[in-house]
Amino acid sequence: MNMRDFYKSLCFLLGFFSVQTEAEKEVNVATWGTAELSMLYSDWYAQKALDGSIYTCSSTPWQTDPWWRLDLMKTYSVNRVTITSKPDCSSCESWLNGAEIRVGNVSSNVSSNPVCAVVSTIPTGATYSYSCHGMEGRYIIVNNPGPSKCVTPCEVGVYVIFPGNLATGRNVKQSSTNGSWISEQAIDFNPGIIKQSSACSSTNVQTNPWWRVDLSSVYRVSSVVITNRLDCCPERINGAEIRIENSLENNGNNNPICAVISSIPAGVSSTYFCNNMEGRYVNLIIPGDSRILTLCEVEVYGEGPLLKRTFLKMKLKSSWSLSDPAVRVQLLSQLQSVLVQRGFSDVKLQWTQPPEQEVMQKEADPV
Length: 367
Ligand SMILES: *[C@@H]1O[C@H](CO)[C@@H](O)[C@H](O)[C@H]1NC(C)=O
Ligand SMILES: *[C@@H]1O[C@H](CO)[C@@H](O)[C@H](O)[C@H]1NC(C)=O
Ligand SMILES: *[C@@H]1O[C@H](CO)[C@@H](O)[C@H](O)[C@H]1NC(C)=O
Fold this sequence. Notes:
Blueprint: E1 5-16, E2 25-28, E3 34-37, E4 67-84, E5 100-104, E6 115-118, E7 127-143, E8 155-162, E9 171-174, E10 201-202, E11 210-227, E12 241-245, E13 257-260, E14 269-285, E15 294-295, E16 297-303, E17 309-316, H1 325-341, E18 347-348, E19 356-361
Antiparallel strand pairs: 1-17, 1-18, 1-19, 2-8, 3-4, 4-7, 4-8, 5-6, 5-7, 9-11, 10-15, 11-14, 11-16, 12-13, 12-14
Pfam families: F5_F8_type_C_2
InterPro entries: BG_Antigen-Binding_Lectin, FTP1, Galactose-bd-like_sf
Keywords: Calcium, Disulfide bond, Lectin, Metal-binding, Signal
């Protein structure tokens, strides 16, 4: 066989690139709370302004200083509030004229909360948006000051901007899932104060339950915020470990520990500082038998993605001459396509120094 064996050194550069996560996200949090009216008109319940249908409205009767009030159970920084007026009713258009939108923390006296905007008029069936520029409060109020007034919102939206949470929209997984408590519900921004089963994640009762988010690139993680469930059993989270790094060995549960959760009170969000640990996977695991891991929210903050350069030295066996630049280009593109086949589509290869070529051994001709 007329073949030469070459051992060649090759250095190349690996660079990991990925799409930058959106810096912030605007989310309608209105349905995460519960609504009340100063007085109920017929079956026009307060919650009908949160049911996603503009055809079912909430209303007070005609009264002095009526109000509709939403309790979000937590303080939010409100970017804007939207109100939809009753469709197919041009005579109702004026009902909301002069209504005040307020954001604040006082439930006993709605008018002691600061005003975000005053409604002039909302055409029938239209949705108008009012900027609140980050006003902070737990209650969102629509009140109409004066005698013989009513408040008739058909839909109310409360939009909050959440800062750059690296977990947003990422792939998540957990060791098992109890019913509707899917792993994605831990990264939906909703702390699950009203209805945990549609806003929190949970495993079954099992040995070493875990949950993982794949940040899809390596980040320098400064902190992880965990929100515990409000409705029951806050002690179940005790002993959970937050682990961060790049390995999927044991499903990522062997990665280094950022923190061990001693306890989190019911409904509270606790922050754990990770001292800029670098990693792609963030895991929570509770070691032990008959444990259950329930997470109402997991937020991950940090910097990145980090560009990772790796220098590799390779020995190749080839009959080609690497002194030919065209061959060098072709070799890189072949390596690239092999990497793509194996799932490394975000790798970029470059020569950092010209390959050396040497004949180490010549195969004996077959007899
Ligand atoms: C509501 O409470 C939060 C947190 O205590 C505070 O930051 C915010 O300023 C309060 N809002 C008003 C309108 O007082
Ligand atoms: C409610 O608050 C407003 C504004 O602070 C105040 O003028 C009014 O007297 C208060 N009403 C009651 C019943 O305390
Ligand atoms: C699922 O959750 C319910 C309610 O918390 C619990 O009673 C049940 O044992 C859980 N199922 C499993 C298989 O762990």
